[in-house]
């Protein structure tokens, strides 16, 4: 019964949000403020899923200016958890195929997000240049999932280098964001426990060049893997209380 009620609630929320959201965004199409607005809105649905969602911000993480935000990418529940950590004037980078998903794809595009063709390497590389230009010209931040795919319970997967090329190219800091595991979340369970999202300290790219991309990526991966393990232990213990 809980499963059915939640599916119904999510369906109603999605239809209303996507239809009215697209209409609202038509007033100022592809304005980066929309991603922040809808990210926060979607995270409110965590309550319907029985998730006690908690956000934490390291010192300086909320006033960093333009940046590349990188987050771990677990599953579909990211839409209702880590999305709440999106900062003002931040857009995301997603697969070009997303635009063909009914309602969601149209909302994703009109809110100003960046779509890339991952099947075409030359276009994807060119997109990194577009990301850099967008940051410099529009003074926005860009959110990326460096794993490139959902981890689905496999821990933090190896990182692709696009986010780090963009950060160094635009000379902006990298801000890691880690969400504790949501593998335990079940639609037919009333209480899905605690999920913690932490926005970590910015990592400066001052003085770095393209030769430093791998070391920057490794540093971010190690820091995020350590934080993920830490948050998983805490979230699990608190969920048992």
From TrEMBL:
**Cited PROSITE patterns:** PROKAR_LIPOPROTEIN (PS51257)
Q: Which InterPro entries match?
A: AGP_acyltrans, Plipid/glycerol_acylTrfase
The chemistry this enzyme catalyses reads:
a 1-acyl-sn-glycero-3-phosphate + an acyl-CoA = a 1,2-diacyl-sn-glycero-3-phosphate + CoA
Q: Does the keyword Transmembrane apply?
A: yes
Q: What are the record's GO terms for cellular component? A: plasma membrane
What is a single molecular function from GO for this protein?
Answer: 1-acylglycerol-3-phosphate O-acyltransferase activity
Indicate the segments forming the Phospholipid/glycerol acyltransferase domain, all copies.
Answer: 67-182
Share the domain note from the entry. The HXXXXD motif is essential for acyltransferase activity and may constitute the binding site for the phosphate moiety of the glycerol-3-phosphate.
Q: Which family does it belong to?
A: Belongs to the 1-acyl-sn-glycerol-3-phosphate acyltransferase family.
Q: What is this protein called?
A: 1-acyl-sn-glycerol-3-phosphate acyltransferase
- According to its UniProt entry, this protein's organism is Photobacterium angustum (strain S14 / CCUG 15956)
């Amino acid at each position: 019964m809980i499963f059915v009620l939640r599916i119904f609630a999510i369906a109603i929320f999605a239809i209303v949000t996507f239809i009215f959201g697209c209409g609202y965004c038509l007033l100022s199409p592809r304005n980066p403020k929309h991603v922040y607005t809808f990210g926060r809105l979607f995270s409110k649905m965590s309550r319907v899923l029985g998730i006690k969602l908690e956000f934490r911000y390291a010192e300086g993480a909320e006033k960093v200016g333009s940046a590349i935000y990188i987050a771990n990418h677990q599953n579909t529940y990211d839409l209702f958890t880590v999305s709440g950590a999106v900062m003002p004037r931040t857009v995301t980078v997603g697969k070009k195929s997303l635009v063909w998903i009914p309602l969601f794809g149209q909302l994703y595009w009109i809110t100003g997000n960046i779509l890339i063709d991952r099947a075409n390497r030359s276009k994807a590389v060119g997109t990194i240049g577009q990301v850099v230009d967008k940051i410099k010209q529009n003074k926005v931040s860009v959110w990326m999932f460096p794993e490139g795919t959902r981890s689905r319970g496999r821990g933090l997967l190896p990182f692709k280098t696009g986010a780090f090329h963009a950060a160094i190219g635009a000379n902006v800091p990298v801000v890691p964001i880690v969400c504790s595991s949501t593998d335990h979340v079940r639609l037919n369970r009333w209480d899905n426990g605690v999920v913690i999202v932490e926005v970590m300290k910015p990592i400066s790219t001052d003085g770095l060049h393209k030769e430093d991309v791998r070391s920057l990526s490794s540093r971010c991966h190690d820091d995020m893997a350590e934080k993920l393990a830490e948050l998983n232990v805490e979230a699990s213990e608190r969920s048992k209380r």
